[in-house]
Design goal:
Elements lengths: L7 E6 L15 H9 L4 E6 L5 H11 L2 E4 L10 H13 L3 E3 L2 H8 L18 E3 L2 H11 L5 E5 L8 E6 L16 E6 L4 E6 H7 L11 E5 L8 E7 L2 E9 L16 E5 L5 H17 L8 E10 L5 E9 L13 H13 L2
Parallel strand pairs: 1-2, 1-3, 3-4
Antiparallel strand pairs: 5-10, 6-7, 6-10, 7-8, 8-9, 11-12, 11-14, 12-13, 14-15
Helix pairs in contact: 1-8, 2-3, 5-6
Bound molecules: adenosine-5'-triphosphate and magnesium ion.
Length: about 350
Amino acid sequence: MTKKIKKSVVFFEAEGGTDKGDDGHRRDTMPMVNAVKAQGWNAEVLFYRNDKKDEIIEYAKENFDAYISRINPGNIPGGEAGYFDMLRSLSDAGLVGMPHPDVMTGYGAKDALTKLTDTDIVPVDTYAYYSLEELRKKFSISLSRGERVLKQNRGSTGEGIWRVVLADERNFEKGDKLPADTKIKCTEAVDNHVEMHELGDFIEFCNQYLVGENGMLVDMPFMPRIKEGEIRILLVGDMPIFVVHKKPAEAEDAFSATLFSGAKYRYDKPEEWAELVDLFLSTLPEITNKLGGYDLPLIWTADFMLDDDEDGGDKYVLGEMNCSCVGFTSHLDQGIQEIVADKIITTIGE
Ligand SMILES: Nc1ncnc2c1ncn2[C@@H]1O[C@H](COP(=O)(O)OP(=O)(O)OP(=O)(O)O)[C@@H](O)[C@H]1O
Ligand SMILES: [Mg+2]
């Protein structure tokens, strides 16, 4: 069977989950589908199921020129591996992947930061650990140098994201390996709750973040100016669409920019953050190159925190990027679905 002349796009979703509207779709999915159709193309949604994978692959190969993935990594039926296999076979069969699974892991995994430490937007002392042994050895030293944030890879909304600071009466030399009985104060971003621990126990507790599929921890310096807010740029390809300013709750230990933890969100235009947006756009070629040279994701975000530069001015530090299932439900009335549809069509080509 030959492909239809008119080009066709399939959107993959998963059934269920809290991100769905009354029609069973993510709230921004049908607006995108309709915007693609409005340009005379065909667009369809398929619900991914692990047990229907082979059928979906056959159907999609025959009928579509590209896929758009709209499944939250934490919500993939049957796990990430099967879904990524499917996307990979479709890309191999010639469908344009938005995004390709390697882009999802390249940009979206927390250790992307460690590939960018020689750019201006990631602190040089940002590390990734993949084993308990590495965590024991290296975190005990990095923490001696100052307050840190440990981030698990699989989390979202601040779960397993820990701010860690020394709370010991002893004075340790910077750069020394801290002993296992060092007292530490740990605050989790999910709700800013505080726990006091001994370093050795906390490290063993963190093993849960290292084991299993995509287990890893990123260790980066704590940015005290997070109190002033996290600044999220949402982009369609290389086009900044809007900026979200997320200000953590006022409580003393609060550092989390998640809604659940009480942060306040404000939506700004990219022009209001011109300095940051220009810096990020000018760093994009370097970022793309360091993350594997793939096309930029279709809809994605980059989150920044403020820091001081040597001359007392502002500096921007990248905290994470997300590209697996970024939504824009808050901006449906602003026609972002049309911008996305244009981007899909120009990427695939008429
Ligand atoms: N280096 C840092 N210094 C200060 N605060 C930080 C740092 N890294 C992260 N945070 C805070 O912790 C929050 C959660 O971290 P991060 O966004 O990396 O994790 P996440 O759980 O994957 O979140 P998301 O749901 O946004 O993907 C951030 O929104 C920010 O407020
Ligand atoms: Mg975040």
